[in-house]
Amino acid sequence: MSQIKRNIITIDPNFDDYNTGPTIQEHRGVPLHIKNTPIFFRTQLEPLGIWSLWQDYGYRIDNNFAQTLTSETPYLVEEHYLPIAEVPGQEHILQSLKEWDLSRKRDPKITISDICFLGMEEMLALADGKTPNTDFDLFVRGICYNPEDYGKEELIHLDITHDAKPIGEIPIYLSLDIDSLIWNTHRLWLLGSLEIHMVPYMQRKPPIEVHNHTYVKILKPQTDIQQANNEYTTYEQFKTQSIPHIHFGYSGHINVWIAFPRMIHRQHDSPYWATQIPFHVQDRWFTFIVQPSIRKIYGRGSKEYVSHSSKEYMAKARGRTETRFVDHKKLLELQDEIHQHIQEDCNENLDIFGSFFFILEARGIKLWTKDREHLSDDIFDVMRQVMPTLDLEYMSHAESGECVLDLGISASPEASEPMVGLWNLTHVDASFAKAGTNTPRLFNIETLSDYGGLSAEFPNDRAAITHMRYRMAYDLVFEIVRGHLKFPENSDAYLANGSYHARIKQLIDHYKYAKTSSYRVRDELRASIKAVKSLVLIAKEKMEMFLDFGTVIWISSKTYFEFWIRRIEQLKYLQMQIAQQRPRNACNLSLLVMHLIKTVFTTPQPLDSHTHFILHDLNFHPSSQRFGIFFIPELHWETLAVDLMEDDNDAVLQFVTNQPGKRKERQKDPLEDSRHTSEYPLGTHPSWDEIIEILDSNPTLITHSHMSTPFWEDHQSEMDIMAIQLMAKWTRQYTFSMNEIFLKDEINYPVLNNWDDIMQFWSIQGIPKLVHVPSFNAHKAYWKGLPPGPQQLAFADCFHSFFPPLTVKFQEGSYWISYLTNGYIKDYHEILKSYTEQVVLNFQDSLKAAFDLLECLPDRAPDPRSQAWKYNDNKGGPCFTVNARTYKIRGIGPKKARNPETRPKAVATHMHIHSLLLADSQQITVPEAVKYIKGQQRNTKKQAKWSTRMKNYREPPPRQKKVLIIEQDATVPHRTPESNLSISEEVEETNDTEIEADDEYDMGNDNFNLELSNSDDSISD
């Protein structure tokens, strides 16, 4: 280590503002919420506002903040790139298998003689396809039967080395490329122009959503003592993804983000860093910094195009991006203007945007540099030609920041037949360990125990001297479904409805087409420009040695994909049995089946808690290692019970069926938009009543047209052709049951020859050409947010109403008897009787897929014995149901409140009447009367606001009035026997009574008198 030379950058003390920021003590103890006064034994927590959270926390950067790869030149690069490590041989693995105990308590002990080692091709040879139970035992339960003793069951250990092609017999083509580029810098220097964003970033997630395996060094906030003594603080290494950042500009496939380290803080009540900057903070950045800086650097002839406010820019953007063009020289001026605006600010609190730096990313550029030998043999010369905006020489200097590239190398077979390559995790994991990486993250493909991909970072101290950050090895077979993978929902799988079958059919078709193609293996290394330059010369040689060591297994594409197709079909068959029998563990078993289907195509991450517990109970990972793949030998076919799997509880039932609770409030969809567009004529989430109304008046406005859309992929199978022929016959004969008065042509019934004719017949455009005044009804299915009440079946499941099973019995004299003896139902029943169960299931799958694409169907009850047509009293014609999947919506919104029209009242307002009467009686103007009335109302309110003491003051009871009896010669009142008062008290009582009488007389005169001479004073009062 003493031979390693460090590239030390001299620290510039004036690079950033170090001594005026907040200290650690200023933010210590500041709560993340404010506690209000407890009311009724409750304490309400009020979170801090935006400007209390998004502020300057004291973090700063140096001019060497991006220098995490500190050695002057990469050290031992060749030794760390694709190293070869010895691993135990196959005999050691077999010996370890013998030592495993494959039994459980109270079960017979399973020995190694009970395990049969088979390859993919050998299992396909045992599967005849005619007996579903045999295929089910092979591909789901992992059980085969001894050919000598058929009653003896043997557990299968899938060993795909039986299918491997010798590596020496397969020519391998190696291809080198640069897949991505990441550059962290404080000074953005480009050779080309840049489009600068002018409006805030309006996405739900930050631009860098996941860790891109790059780091920066940030200076921690100072303490009070350090700030007083002008001392430096220590560094803290941050992931680039964890620093608050937004978009800055772009040039083609190159994106530039801008990060603000001063605002680094953690989310409210969360251990994660806050990286999504709120809109109001972004708006201040664009309003007070970016937009004035753009106006400053633009010439006088362009002021009209940049002299806009923030609201004007957003109005012009209309939800999209709004940019302004800046060339490479003006880009430097723009950065200087941004620094100047932040430094000169005094009032707008713009210092939170200081210490910013740029993150330049170019992702997914492998095709730009792959197989470009006609341009140059040097891959860096190719990059300069295809990406002229970047100055790679400038970006490679440590003073300019830190730039890393992804050096990718792919190994592709050139055999006579298509091949699939899989990394052997045992060998590749040993290679990662010898290179000194952290513990790799494994991605087992299709639950295979020892094959798939893995990735790992290099430790920081090792990365600093080797200039290697991250390595990843993966199989390119995942490119088949990359970007367009859609799995069935758990609720669809639980019901095994048409959506479930359609999605599974699409997944199977992906693998069917892949049989004729080869799929490579790939290794990527994220390293500095200097490291990549030294590795480009030896990469292919190192890869050849790495492949010769047995790190990759090559299998025939036909064998590989046919095996997984057969496994998916059997898992689909198992799910159908779950939907029919509904065992007590139906939801748990459905989650397990869906997980196994997903693992065929990808590595599902992360898992929901219910699936996680199911896999844990079934010993998923140990079982996969023991048998090479995960089988379910504990599954009992008759009862569908699985050992160690619990019965369904309310929580898992709620999760799988996706049934909302009684008090569950509707959550607004973040994609909900009420604007009426051509794509969504009623908005993205119209109410159910709006859909019913538009289908009744103008159904073509809200429906998509699926004309000429096939329900098969690439080519028609025999089952697809049979389904089309039967549906054409059904469509023609079903119209026989309609009253001829509703048909526009009562004599010539339609004749259908192909699938397009069927689609045209059952379309909204085609039905009015055949039927008088049809009524189109809404289809209460498929969408979330439907009103309460029973839902209708999906169109794929409605085929049972038109094609009844053999068990349905029709009443004598019913017109359905004619269809059963001479019509399409007879043909359908003959197919059910003539073919095996597996063929019938495939045929029914074709019918379901076809029905799912129809635009309309007759509105009838699900019972096959119900009436063929319904009559609409309002329209006076037959009813049709419009397929919910064709609606131009994203979901069902809440019921819109209908505001009644505001109508004027016949009676004038009380104020109007009172003011007119007052003005008429006192001979004043109406405004003066209104002013006086309002003043009186204010005074009344003031008098009503008495204190608590005055309101609670108990008034004494009224005194009794005494009647004075005065004799002719007497001067004192006559004393009654009942009176105990003295003479003086009686006199006082008399005087008080007389005074109260006078007061009552004055208060009784409560008539309104307004002196004209004092009217102005009274009104003003």
Automatic annotation (TrEMBL):
<feature type="region of interest" description="Disordered">
    <location>
        <begin position="655"/>
        <end position="682"/>
    </location>
</feature>
<feature type="compositionally biased region" description="Acidic residues">
    <location>
        <begin position="985"/>
        <end position="1003"/>
    </location>
</feature>
<feature type="region of interest" description="Disordered">
    <location>
        <begin position="975"/>
        <end position="1021"/>
    </location>
</feature>
<feature type="region of interest" description="Disordered">
    <location>
        <begin position="935"/>
        <end position="955"/>
    </location>
</feature>
<feature type="compositionally biased region" description="Polar residues">
    <location>
        <begin position="1006"/>
        <end position="1021"/>
    </location>
</feature>
<feature type="compositionally biased region" description="Basic and acidic residues">
    <location>
        <begin position="666"/>
        <end position="678"/>
    </location>
</feature>
<protein>
    <submittedName>
        <fullName>Uncharacterized protein</fullName>
    </submittedName>
</protein>
